[in-house]
Structures are given as C-alpha cells and as structure tokens.
Amino acid sequence: MTEMDGRSELAYRLIRRAIAEGEFEPGSRLIEQRIGEMFDLSRTPVREALRALAADGLVVIERNRGAVVATMSESDIRDQYELRARLESLAAERAATRMGPEGVAALDAAIADFDAGLELASSGAHDASLRRITAANSAFHQAVVKGAQHRRLSVLLEHAVDIPLVYQVFRHQTRAEGERSNLFHRMVRDAIAAGEPDRAGALMAEHILQGRDSLLALRSRPVRETETHAS
C-alpha cells in the first residue's frame, strides 16, 4: 500500500473490506461519489484509496469506466497461490529458526480464535463466525511472517496474499474443511516451535495449496451451491 494520509487510509481499509466480504463484486464499478456517501468520506480520500487498491491488484482503472473490482482467471489464481505458497513456506522455515516464545504464543492465540470462530458457525452466527475465522487466519499467517524476521519477505507477502480470495474460501467452506485448515495451523505451529524448518516449510506450502484447490473447486460449482455459507 502506498503512503496515504489518515482519511485515505481509512477509505482504503473500508473499501478493501467491502471487496473482501463480497459487497463489491468482481467486475463491478466503484463510483467515488457513491462510495464516499456510503462511508461518509469526501471523494479525495476515496480516489487515493482506489489508486492504492489498484496498485495492490484488487482494483483495475479502466478507460471510460473508471475503477472496477478486479476479476481473476483460473490461471491468475494458480499463479498467485503458487507464489504465496513459496513465500510463506520460506517464512515458516525462517520462523522455525528465529521465532521466540512470544511468537509461538501469538500462533496459539490465533489457533484458539479460529476454533472459537468455528463454534460460532455451529451456533448459527455465520457473519460473526466468518469475520472471526478470517481475522484469526490472518493473525496466524502474519505471526509466522513476523516470526521470520525478514522485512523484504514481509513486504512481498503484502501483495501476494489476496484477502478477497481467502475470504471467499472461508465463506463457503464446511465445518470439516475449517477444522482441516486449523489442523494445518497446529502442525505448522508445532514444527516451528520444535525448530524444524524443512517440516514447517513443507506443511505451510501444502496448507496454502489446499486453499488454492478449495477456491478452484468453489469456482467450478453451480451458483446455487455457493450462495449460502455452510455450517
């Protein structure tokens, strides 16, 4: 994300979340005035936010149409997840040799929050569950990257992780799929805590690629099967 002032950064985060949560669908126009009215912001910070989102690849600025939510082909998804798998695998390897007890505690907290989100889904609170699960998942992966103590790698991963795609996977996953995802978190955590870089890296890569496979399978389902969040 490019450097922005406070209002522009707020606009960036609000629009990014709306894209992630499907409020702004792929291919839809992002009209500055309407977005400003939606979030009680002037057009200037909205315009700056859209430029930053375009730099991140979440928005495309088209001639005669303006800002449009980016769409991704199957090839785009495969390329992005391959890149992410390699980068996060390296982060897990580095974390296994550099992460201290505080970092492992952060992983444990994220895993516990993920479990709590799964329980919310069982109670029928799907929106709250989805937000808690995605926040916990983000916290886990960010803790791994932080534990790697590799500044350049952290910067690269900011652009390699497509939050809307991650959110889409969690929106439609079953309880069993969610439990499998958090099981991988536990295994990666254990490998990092044990100081086993090769194992940590291999587990992280497999975890990311399973996310890719889930997303590609989701895109191939009939629309009616993806309209509701599975509990």
UniProtKB/TrEMBL annotation:
Question: Which superkingdom does the taxonomy of this entry point to?
Answer: Bacteria
Instruction: Return one GO MF term.
Output: DNA binding
Stretches assigned to the HTH gntR-type domain: 5-72
PROSITE patterns linked to this entry = HTH_GNTR
Q: Which UniProt keywords apply?
A: DNA-binding, Transcription, Transcription regulation
For this protein, the record's InterPro entries field holds: GntR_C, TF_FadR/GntR_C, Tscrpt_reg_HTH_GntR, WH-like_DNA-bd_sf, WH_DNA-bd_sf
Q: What is this protein called?
A: HTH gntR-type domain-containing protein
Q: Which organism is it from?
A: Mycobacterium palustre
